Amino acid sequence: MDGRDLSASQAAKETKGNENRGEPSCNSKEIECVQKPSDGQKGISNCSGLMADEAGKERLRYSSSTDPSSLTSDSMGEAANGYHGLGEEHVAPASNNLHKVSIIPLIFLIFYEVSGGPFGIEDSVQAAGPLLSILGFLLFPLIWSIPEALITAEMGTMFPENGGYVVWVSSALGPFWGFQQGWMKWLSGVIDNALYPVLFLDYLKSAIPAVGGGLPRIFAVLALTVVLTYMNYRGLTIVGWVAVCLGVFSLLPFIVMGLIAIPKIRPSRWLKVNLRGVDWNLYLNTLFWNLNYWDSISTLAGEVENPIKTLPKALLYAVILVVVGYLYPLLAGTGAVPLDRDQWTDGYFADIAKMIGGVWLMGWVQGASALSNMGMFVAEMSSDSYQLLGMAERGMLPAFFSKRSRHGTPLIGILFSASGVLLLSWLSFQEIVAAENFLYCFGMILEFIAFIVLRVRHPNARRPYKIPFGTVGCVLMLIPPTVLIMVVLVLSSLKVAVISLVAVCIGFVLQPCLKHVEKKRWVRFSINSDLPDFKEEEEEEEETLVA
After folding, report:
1. Which terminus of the chain, N or C, has less C-beta within 10 A?
2. CA distance 113 to 106
């Protein structure tokens, strides 16, 4: 524990003692207090340090200029059971867990963060043919998905709090880069989420042609966004179980399609390839888009029931579910139907279902695809909004972002994310995928660096789940995904690269502006005192080893 930890601890003790005597309490330049009003007076004690009310309840608030590493909680175990936001009372873990996300909903939240079903993988066949498409969804998870999921499991249990990768990068590289990570990942998530209402209406317009364009489409996008946003407002447990129901409904038609297709499958069709006709940009972007975002679940780790045990298991099961959910229909579709690469584009699985099973199966696939977009929307918005809440609790954003609704959800974060979705919903599908992949790549580079830095600088920090490789092994594990990131960035179009780099530069300007606002005290910033301090945990581990 460094000097600032001791100062904060002494300030807390002295403040409590002074208030018990009815005296004003001031102990440092960072803590400004006004004497508590006498009995019978109405007033509010203005204190950015420790506050104690008549019931003796204590809350600790710091100016965000304080180093987050100096703010400690009683134990990592307390944080694992969940923590409360600013201005909320401590709740017993048993009561808290009533509103926590359990493992089954968590698996499907991850499923929808990453996949949502095989909708959208058709372009891989158009770009590279059946063989490379099948190999891509077999090998890409080994190169990209599994390393990302492993890092999420280790870092998510090391920092079991909302904010996820923002906290990882901030702890390793400092608050400036932590903010940049939050900005790029949040913007990438909002861009991604803008896609789903549009895709939902694209599937719906065959039944309701009016939503294909014009004012009816605009109002439909607005109405759909409002309905799904309200679902997020009502609570993460509701979103989780909705994801379970939507996930089962989305996967069932492909299970049926695969069973019906068995007599029609010709394995030789899987082996067709033409290396000269491969569109590598489309191929890699399709694979990347369909197999990333494993780390998104970390931004709501503070809402998970016993995240130290639940998060790694959920990630493992989700990896299996996603990979099988892609390969099963891909093998059925390419093996049972003669190849026509030009036809393999978004929505082609519905046509395959018609050829294999008839009109009834096509309608089921179309309905599953439409509802899958709803599941991806609510899962992505949950991640984005809890990320903003986590950043506010770390003092990176104004304190009003940490405000929770009566349902315990991040109200301001949800409203900001919904607004971003509405503003970006006019972009085309290809532009959305390319732009979000570009920004996501930058964020992943920061994540990889932070992961290695924390392994090197803090080898004894408490890691409830630890990747079973040494630091050198982890570096070797990250070489293939890093090379893949570079390839995706190089293959991006000039337009996408320019737009994305401008967005990155906005983050470089935005963070100093927020620090200036904080310095001028135009808006209140604060840090949640209940957040875990991994450095203190590391010191305790070292003292235990020495003893």
Report:
1. C
2. 10
Query: Closest by alpha carbon to 361, among 350, 347, 345?
Result: 350
Give ∠ CA 351-199-224 in degrees, rounded to 5: 135
Q: What is the pLDDT of residue 24?
A: 41
CA dist 361 → 118, 255, 312, 357 (Å) = 15, 11, 36, 6
Residue with tokens 């600790």: 60
Q: Taking the model in full, what pTM does it have?
A: 0.75
- Per the CB < 8 A criterion, the answer to whether 527 and 393 are in contact is yes
- Tell me if residue 33 falls in helix, strand or coil: strand
Bridge partners of 62, per DSSP, are: 527
Sign of the dihedral through C-alpha 269, 273, 277, 278: positive
Which of the pair, 388 or 47, is modelled with greater confidence?
A: 388
DSSP code per residue over 286-314: HHHHHS--GGGGGGBGGGBSSHHHHHHHH
DSSP state of 235: -
Look up residue 397 and give its DSSP letter. Answer: S
152-192, pLDDT tens digit by residue? 999 999 998 888 899 999 999 999 999 999 999 998 888 87
- Name the pairing type of β-strands 527-528 and 50-52: unpaired
- The predicted pLDDT at position 59 comes to 34
The DSSP code sequence of 449-490 is HHHHHHHHH-TTS--SS--SS-HHHHHHHHHHHHHHHHHHHH
Distance of alpha carbon 253 from alpha carbon 369, whole angstroms: 10
Pairing of strands 50-52, 58-62: antiparallel
Residue 354, φ and ψ in degrees, nearest 5? -65, -45
Single out the residue of 12, 4, 7 nearest to residue 60, CA to CA.
12
Q: What is the spatial distance between Cα 86 and Cα 36, in angstroms, rounded to a whole number?
A: 21
pLDDT top residue among 439 and 199: 439
Distant-in-sequence, close-in-space partners of 370: CB < 8 Å, separation ≥ 6: 200, 203, 204
pLDDT tens digits for range 74-84: 333 333 333 33
